[in-house]
Design brief:
Layout (H helix, E strand, L loop, with lengths): L14 H20 L3 E4 L14 H13 L4 E5 L3 E3 L3 E4 L7 E5 L2 E3 L5 H4 L3 E6 L4 E4 L2 E3 L3 H8 L9 E6 L2 E6 L2 E3 L6 E4 L2 E6 L2 E3 L10 E4 L2 E11 L5 E3 L4 E10 L5 E6 L8 E7 L2 E3 L3 E7 L7 E8 L2 E5 L1 E6 L17 E14 L3 E6 L6 E13 L2 E2 L1 E5 L1 E10 L6
Parallel strand pairs: 1-2, 2-5, 3-6, 4-7, 5-8, 6-9, 7-10, 8-11, 9-12, 10-13, 11-14, 12-15, 13-16, 14-17, 15-17, 16-18, 17-19, 18-20, 19-21, 19-22, 20-23, 21-24, 22-25, 23-26, 24-27, 25-27, 26-28, 27-29, 28-31, 29-32
Antiparallel strand pairs: 29-30
Keywords: Cell wall, Cell wall biogenesis/degradation, Glycosidase, Hydrolase, Secreted
GO molecular function, one term: polygalacturonase activity
Pfam families: Glyco_hydro_28
């Protein structure tokens, strides 16, 4: 009888491939599981397309569900317009990975009085690990601006998006338009990234700062376009370790540290870098401003690097006698101490003859100012500089010069 060899115990040439395939599948399953997220569509919580009915209760219910989840959670807003009344999202939930992904638009009520007496339209307080991405926030601010321009009795108005006492925040790829007041407020926060946002309001819209940061640390603002009626970015007391890069500003009032010296006991501003900003037709470029009041505050360690000015009224400005409309100004000297400020690689055109102005406090002169490689002109001619109570040095080619030798 012939004997046939039993090869079933021998390794098949396909077995190593099968083993590798199984390992790859298991690894893919582990990765996708680790990055999986619970998706909460606001439509499933009662949100209504078309802007005819208030959808804020649906957003509150979705937020409550996200807070209760033990997994990464995405609150999803699909295409369409959703009428949203003022909402406050409070922290204290165990979930530290909640994302709002917006494909549509959140629209404020057309009656400005509904937002006018609240501080913020969309407010996050005490949250950790929240991301907002995409979509449009339309605050319908024009009616309130018209009220204010008519000198009628008008509410103060609301900020569009407000993060307070929060950590590890991401705001990406979002548009904010026609805010009643500030578009984005970062207050008392740590580790914040604002990236690729588009902020839009007309030049005549009052107090519509694009992004305001105060009492916050490790804040990064990059690759954003800001067109508004006030400061594109404003930096208030207690701000530390800020990185601002590749900002296009205009119209608007520029990038400002201040106004400071609101209070006698006020925390200082430290370690701020503004890099590669472009200013077009703005009132100011790079500004530090404080009221002429006693204050314990300071500005220390600021770098303005690589800015381009296009027809800017005050390209480089330190104003320690800030007094808009000459109203309620104390007529004293500012207590804010300004030191170690670097301006480097600033080029472009000034809309006024004076391109560099340092109007510092006689009681607390500005110290340690460095101008390096500055080329600013006025109507294709040499611009001028004006300096009071300012001490520093000039390096490389500085035009206009006259402040420091």
């Amino acid at each position: 009888m012939a004997k046939f060899s039993n090869h079933s115990s021998l390794p098949s040439p396909f077995q190593p491939f099968i083993v590798i395939l199984v390992l790859v599948f298991l690894l893919f399953h582990m990765i996708t599981k680790s990055y999986s997220a619970t998706l909460l569509n606001v439509l499933d919580f009662g949100a209504i397309h078309g802007g005819g009915r208030d959808s804020s209760p649906a957003f509150r219910r979705a937020w409550a569900k996200a807070c209760m989840s033990s997994e990464s959670t995405i609150v999803y807003v699909p295409n369409g317009r959703f009428l949203v009344w003022p909402i406050e999202f409070h922290g204290g939930c165990g979930n530290k990975d909640i994302s709002f992904h917006i494909d549509g638009a959140l629209v404020a009520p057309s009656d400005y009085r509904i937002l006018g007496d609240v501080r913020s339209w969309l407010s996050f307080d005490g949250v950790d690990g929240v991301t907002l991405s995409g979509g449009v926030l339309d605050a319908n601010g024009a009616a309130l601006w018209d009220c204010k321009s008519s000198a009628a009795h008008c509410p103060v108005g609301a900020m569009t998006l407000n993060f307070r006492n929060s950590n590890n925040i991401r705001i990406r790829g979002m548009m904010s338009k026609n805010s009643q007041l500030f578009h984005i407020l970062i207050d008392g926060c740590k580790n914040v990234l604002v990236e690729g946002v588009n902020i839009v309001a007309p030049s005549y819209s009052p107090n519509t700062d694009g992004i305001h940061v105060e009492t916050s640390t490790h804040v990064t603002i990059v690759d954003s376009i800001i067109q508004t009626g006030d400061d594109c970015i404003s930096i208030g007391p207690g701000s530390r370790n800020l990185w601002i890069q590749r900002i296009r500003c205009g119209p608007g009032h520029g990038i400002s540290i201040g106004s400071l010296a609101h209070n006698k006991n006020e925390p200082g501003v430290r370690n701020v870098t503004v890099s590669n900003a472009i200013f077009s037709g703005t009132q100011n470029g790079l500004r530090i401003k404080s009221w002429a009041r006693p204050s314990s505050g300071f500005v220390f360690g600021v770098q303005f690097l690589g800015a381009t000015m296009h027809n800017v009224q005050n390209p480089i400005l330190i104003d320690q006698h800030y007094c808009p409309h000459n109203l309620n100004c104390p007529g004293q000297e500012s207590g804010i101490k300004i030191s170690n400020i670097i301006y480097k690689d600033i080029v472009g055109t000034s809309a006024t003859p004076i391109a560099i102005k340092f109007d510092c406090s006689s009681r607390n002169p500005c110290n340690g100012i460095r101008l390096e490689d500055i080329r600013l002109t006025y109507q294709n001619e040499e611009a001028k500089s004006s300096c009071e109570c300012a001490n520093g040095k000039a390096l490389g080619l500085v035009q206009p010069n006259g402040c420091f030798s």
